[in-house]
Amino acid sequence: MKFSIGGSLKLAFRPWVEGLENIPAEGPAILASNHLSFSDSFFLPAVLDRKVTFIAKAEYFTSPGLKGRLTAAFFKGVGQLPVDRSGARGAGEAAIKSGIEVIERGELFGIYPEGTRSPDGRLYRGKPGGLARVALATGAPVIPVAMIDTEKIQPPGKVIPKLMRPGIRIGKPLDFSRYHGMDGDRFILRSVTDEVMYEIMKLSGQEYVDIYATAAKRHIADAEKAKAAGRAAKAERDPSGA
User: Which Pfam family is one of those matched by this entry (predicted)?
Assistant: First the structure.
């Protein structure tokens, strides 16, 4: 199923790729990517000859009805693993455990260090948990990846994608073996994560914002609520709209 989906995506969108030679022909590696769109987890596997496993929220695999079953089949077909995100710490531990298992099988593990999609196309601070802990626990190389223009193809809330060419830049592998076994040191975890985010920034050309994307989303949501409240108050004061 991966090959049929990947072939269809490549035929329809014709993604361009730089740095494919940086993906090892065999053996484990961690692909750490920026996250612009829901479709990122499909375009990257589509251009690779090897299977890459991403983590996906469990709701994608358990939704009821025909649409739910089709969605679950699609995610399984492209190699995504369900993770229950009902508890923040539990979700993180489950993702780390799954990532280590993928690496121990000698496969490619894909992860988004930002933890969620960028709300505005900028690159946000990487979370120091999953990426760094999997890398330091396993010794696997980390390969930075930059998705280009995927947010223009399918912005949040849009169901039907726009036909245009996205891009993918794959950087050289980063070796963190010097920190192997130090996955309990929060300063090391932060250092590793920041180094990876710096490489992603260079590949993507994105503006970097030194806050978490989840915080940025809260700020944006609060601003929208404030605007809506202001409009409602104005309408109440002047029902005529004059």
Answer: Acyltransferase
Query: Above pLDDT 70, what percent of the chain?
Result: 80
In one letter, which amino acid is 67? K
Distance, in Å, from the CA atom of 99 to the CA atom of 30, rounded to the nearest integer, reads 9
- Tens digit of each residue's pLDDT (9 = 90 or more) over 208-219: 999 999 999 998
**CB proximity list for 194: less than 8 A, separation 6 or greater:** 126
Identify the helix (H) or strand (E) that includes residue 206.
none
H helix intervals, the chain: 2-13, 40-47, 59-62, 65-77, 88-104, 130-138, 150-153, 186-204, 213-237
Is the distance from CB of 175 to CB of 141 less than 8 angstroms? Answer: yes
The H or E element containing residue 163 is: none
CA atoms of 152 and 39, how far apart (whole Å): 11
147-198 pLDDT per residue, tens = 999 999 877 667 777 888 999 999 999 999 999 888 889 999 999 999 999 9
Q: How far apart are CA 106 and CA 117, in angstroms?
A: 27
Q: Tell me which DSSP letter residue 154 carries.
A: S
